[in-house]
Every structure is written in C-alpha cells, then in structure tokens.
Amino acid sequence: MTWSGVAPARTFVGIDVGGTATRFVAVDEELTVLQSAIASTPARATPAELETFFAESVAELVVGSEIAAIGVGVSGPISAEGIIQNPDTLPALTGVNVPALLRHSVGVPAYIDNDAVTAALGEATVGAGRGYDHVLMVTLGTGVGVSMLNVGEPVRGADGQHPEAGHLGVDGPPAPCYCGRRCCWEQLASRQALQRSCTVLVEDPRNSSADIDLVADRATSGDPVARAVFDDYGRRLAAGAATLLTVFRPQILILGGSGSTYFPHFERALHDALAEVTGAYPTPRIAVAEFGEYGGAIGAAVLAIARSA
C-alpha cells in the first residue's frame, strides 16, 4: 500500500480488533481516511507473533507517513491497565497489553478501549451521531457490543470498566452463552447468529458472511423463507434493544458492525417489535453507522487523537 499525494504532517492509526477480523485505518487530524486494510484476527499466536502482526500491518498501512498515535478498540473486557480479558472470542490476545506492545514495536503513544466505545466515538464525532448528546451504539459482529455516550463520555461501571451489555437475558429459543445465560441476547442478535440462520438455507455453505449475502439476495427477490430469516433476526435484535432503550433513553440508536449492512432486510421487523413496547422510552431515531464495518477503527483513531491532544 502507498499513499496518494502528499503525506499529512500527522497521521493517526485506528485498529479495531474483532473476534473474526481486525481492521486498520490511517486518518489525518480532520479524520479523513487515508488508507484502510483488513486482516484475520490471530486465533493462536505467541506475544512475539502478535507484535509482528500489528507492527507489520501498521507499517504497510502508513508507508511514507509519520504516525502520531495509535488507538485500539477490542471486543470484550479490558483491565484498567489495558490488558485484554476475553478468552472466549479473543483467545490469542487475552492477557496481552496491546498498547504496550504497540508502543514497543511502533514507538508511538497507543491507547485502548472497548470496540463498542470506539465505534460510538467515531459515529458521534463524524458519523450518524453528529449533533446528538445521548448516543446508544450497538455493534453486530462476532458478538454484540454496546456503548452509551452521554455528551461524549461513555457510561462506565462503578469499577471504571465498560459494561458488557450485549449479554442480556432475553426471551427466545435456547441460546446458551459462555457468559452463563441460557438465553443470551448476544447469541441471538450477533452477525454470527444471523450467519448461522442463513447457513442452513445455503446448498454449499461457506460459513461466512457470503451465506448471509446469498439469503439476502433471495429475500430481495421475494423468497418468503429468506424473508422470514431476516424478520426473525429483527425481532431477536429488538428483544435486547428494547431493554437498552428503556434503561438508557437515548436520542439515537446506531447499529454498527458487519451485521448492520443487512439493516434494510430486518428494519421493518425491528421497528414493529420495538413498537410493541409502549410507554417505556421515548422513540429514538434508529440509524446505521455511516462508516459501516470500519466504524470501530475510525473511532479508535478518534480515541488516539483525543488522548494524545
């Protein structure tokens, strides 16, 4: 990868580490995306291999430009010291202090937060959440990430940690989760859950988002079975979203992550299911993240800019 034109004076890198894929962006101080890349998240790796993975990915991203700072968003819990604590979806990175690793390998300041927080920061700053003080972000990927921003500040627990609000008990078919719940919202409403529902309808499944694409095409063509899959997904998404809307009462609900790209197929079912809950919360605007699957990485760059100011 190479830069086109003159490299900016200060470049910031955002990294979004998901359970399946890791996305990288380089931006300037105006948050113009200069370059982006995607790689499979390591499932098994030594600390040295992880350092090489991040260092080489960043180096390829910013050829010819000087990095000012790096921001990282990761799924699941993170300790106050920046150590990832998510053995179920990030086994290779659990126990790793990624900011410290980046500071050592790249030699610039590095910062970390939950990936739903970074996605929310990006959308609230330059995306669908511009102009709103109270923003609820739900990311639909390997799992379900949730972040609530009040006037730009993420809601934290009394211990300073990010609430793992994707893990809610909901009504539905048995959906046991590593969190211990027998019917967990994350297991019903993640992109991974939608993928599982679509895979059983595909003759030669790839066990990837390609299966969702095939079923989405059928739904667009009017296939009632395909449409039913997305309607069911919309209702499952609403089951947890209604609880979050009741608790947080946001002005806007933004859906991000790769699952949000299928919003046109489940939008009606989501709205209809939410409308069944009356008097519990003011009706918010519902929007899809403007940056799509790169929203978390762009938000991580926002984190880098804010923390290094």
TrEMBL record:
InterPro entries (UniProt xref): ATPase_NBD, ROK
Domain of life: Bacteria
A Pfam family annotated for this UniProt entry: ROK
PANTHER family linked to this entry: BIFUNCTIONAL UDP-N-ACETYLGLUCOSAMINE 2-EPIMERASE_N-ACETYLMANNOSAMINE KINASE, ROK (REPRESSOR, ORF, KINASE) FAMILY
Family (UniProt): Belongs to the ROK (NagC/XylR) family.
Name listed for the protein in its UniProt record: ROK family protein
